[in-house]
């Protein structure tokens, strides 16, 4: 009797279905698996990569001193002196004496000194502009901005004057005004310091540039961009500008990021990539910013939309905790980061101002978009979107071929027939990356389904942790110590994935060999990246390059390296090394940007779910090809217990001082942000007679935590919530900008009336012509006002004096809407007029009620205060940062 041959593990009988027609031989490298050292090796690599990337991210060049012999280079010490003066003015918001007088005097004096020391060949012009105008600002639910008497300092370094040709210019823009209650060292005194130093360097050059360079030191950016609008739409030099560089900040120091370019004009980012000695730029950052996830904006929008000029937007993003706070001072700007910015911008300005492309565009240089990113700050990779589509298609084809090759013999016949029509280069590349492991469609789909379930489980673990932290009142425990995110979100997601696949290993896939499972989940992961690549390409996302790298590099290196090593872990780690390094770099910058933003994202966003989502994406990306390690491990028990202990330790840490969200440590400040107004409200009837009024402290909390840990402050023991008063314009309370939809959770504290005047509203004229009624108003009061116009039923605003078209109404977040007008005036410019025309029902006379109008005045300068404001400020904890000011809210009916 013949003996029945024994089956090796991985060799299956035909009774087990089609999968078992395939013979999966374990080679000697897979046979026993790897203990848990594979997980240790991965952990060590991740820690080493993160440490290296983190270290590189915060490295800066040596700062040059004024004593240096070569004066034709950017010198940080000189720029720092300018920053120090402007920051030492203290808060200097547009319209204040500090901003419109003292800062202007200093800048003009420094420019005069530069003119006196300039090379005789250089011509430097200076102009002071105080524009007036209006425009629609489309962020924050939209509002109309009206400005008058704000200040711009415009300095022009002339280039070569060509006979018979108009002057052409490069614009460099930065602002010297600060946000309320902030000294504004990084935002944006640093840019002004850099610009003054650039003017000095250009002024002593023995040669002229090919184009003029116009430096706009604008004095009203924090009013949401009116100064740049006044310049680009009204200044006599504006028509000569062909491109611009905008300098901004959303943090304190660090590396300056190119996060917007264009529109189109790919030559701009090519020029930056070629000439910036320390590049830091990302098309991914551009797509994120333009998605409006970040609650900020820059003058780039104004130059692009109103000037129709292409440019480059550059901003500091590190340490966003101090952005718009008292901590934005010179001490929080690391030595060397101004040198880095100065060297980059000087090289860029030289290149752009000497470029013939600025006026002699070819179609290729003017049209089209670019894919661009830097590699750890060492160099940049740039290529056109058209090339990107070709690369994406090529890589996708190779990825699909590598999977198809592993199907059964019958399927391979079809595969061989199909690829005969491919170009030889594809065949050669395919041979390089191909693998001889065989799969079936059924097995691939099973692996795909299991992977998708694992992704869902990871997502659910993040949602569950966010829900738990919210339920136990431990929200934002990671805010001042982001390391907690690792234990609170990263590890639970990893834990759920490991547990799920470890279970499948002993059940669903128990009869498959380690080599088969390793290959299977590698291909499943690549298939998911292929789908993402396809989706991003169809959506015309420039960030599709990212998915392309996660396909091409692992596909190439894993198969090449496996031919030279006996280890199956080493090829995997080598395969993911480059895309993993870039991913860690990207997520470091992403978290560095968004974690501080959660402190000012408003009361309506639960930061746990938002940050948890970012961490989840980072997990899915950075561990995407590592599933095979679970299946090739002999055991995952120790790893699972270690992860579980770290999760529990992280949860416990949220109940300790380490898990307290906020910090007042000057070297690691992470303040809670509050806005506190002492508000007088007055209500008038149609005759202009005051009929009632009240006064309160109106507290706006800029995060989702409300007044937690502030209950010891008088009036907050049992606070009254400021609910929307729907019968009053914009819910009945003053808002500096149209941000109520994101700051709906406000609190009221009883207060006596302050003694500051309300805005005076004068009805200059009211004329009825048929169904149209025309009103002219004069507003007199302070430098900063808001006006809310709410037409009554049947009436509509048809025209007005502010913008060519009447904009859409602005929502208040509770179903109501108004025409929201923000007025920002220059120093001691406290009155303005406007007219509006309303369409009303014919039966209404010029004495009937047509609309309600509310006017707010904001006393934000000269450190004005009241006893109630002072008392609150004295009681607040040192980890809170409050912007206090006095305001009024008055309502009339016309």
Question: Top keywords for this entry?
Answer:
globular; 894 residues; alpha+beta
End-to-end separation in angstroms reads 110 Å
Helix amount: 25-40%
Radius of gyration: 31 Å
What fraction strand? 15-25%
- Please tell me what the overall shape is: globular
**Total strand segments:** 24
Name the poorly predicted regions: 1-26, 408-415, 417-434
What would the average pLDDT be, to the nearest integer?
90
Major sheet size, sense and barrel closure: 11 strands, mixed
Total of helices: 22
What does this structure look like?
The structure is a single chain. The protein is α+β, with helices and mostly antiparallel strands and 894 residues long. Helices cover 38% and strands 20% of the residues. Helix 2 (76-88) crosses helix 4 (185-203) and helix 17 (544-561) runs antiparallel to helix 18 (569-597). The model is unreliable at 1-26, 408-415 and 417-434 (pLDDT under 50).
Secondary structure: elements and pairs:
Layout: H1 37-57, H2 76-88, H3 97-117, E1 124-129, E2 132-137, E3 143-148, E4 152-157, E5 169-175, H4 185-203, E6 212-218, H5 226-234, E7 241-249, E8 256-262, H6 267-275, H7 283-290, H8 300-305, E9 311-316, H9 337-353, H10 363-366, E10 370-375, E11 379-384, H11 385-404, H12 409-419, H13 424-433, H14 441-471, H15 484-505, H16 514-538, H17 544-561, H18 569-597, H19 607-622, H20 627-632, H21 637-653, E12 672-684, E13 690-701, E14 720-721, E15 746-750, E16 760-769, E17 772-780, E18 784-791, E19 796-800, E20 810-811, E21 817-825, E22 831-839, E23 851-859, H22 867-875, E24 880-893
Helix pairs in contact: 1-18, 2-4, 3-4, 4-9, 6-9, 11-13, 11-16, 11-17, 14-15, 14-16, 14-19, 15-19, 15-21, 16-17, 17-18, 18-19
